[in-house]
Amino acid sequence: MxxxxxxxxxxxxxxxxxxxxxxxxxxLMFGPDHPMEITLLYILPTLPPILTDEKKKDRAVAxxxxxxxxxxxxxxxxxxxxxxxALLEKGFKxxxxxxxxxxxxxxxxxxxxxxxxx
Length: 118
Fold this sequence. Notes:
Elements: E1 7-12, H1 17-21, H2 23-29, E2 36-44, H3 49-55, H4 59-89, E3 97-103, H5 108-117
Parallel strand pairs: 1-2, 2-3
Helix pairs in contact: 3-4
């Protein structure tokens, strides 16, 4: 018995209103019953090098940077949850929607492409 080919699609999200509206495109093009796996991807912002260099020297700066990074992760989780909820409201199955956040490595666009290729 041949199994259906399952599409995998990566959708970058940024928390903007237009980003959430772009999820309508998935519903219009494929519909919620389409056998595909959707990965919602958020790329965490990076801190300026001057701060990250300073954290190596100063423990107080390192603590503050850690707090900022934790806030960024919390924000990413909220943005991803909002996007996932938007897809679920459109009828997509929760088991077909994944959420992922990653630190920026090269640049947002390239990081998205690298994640999709990986």
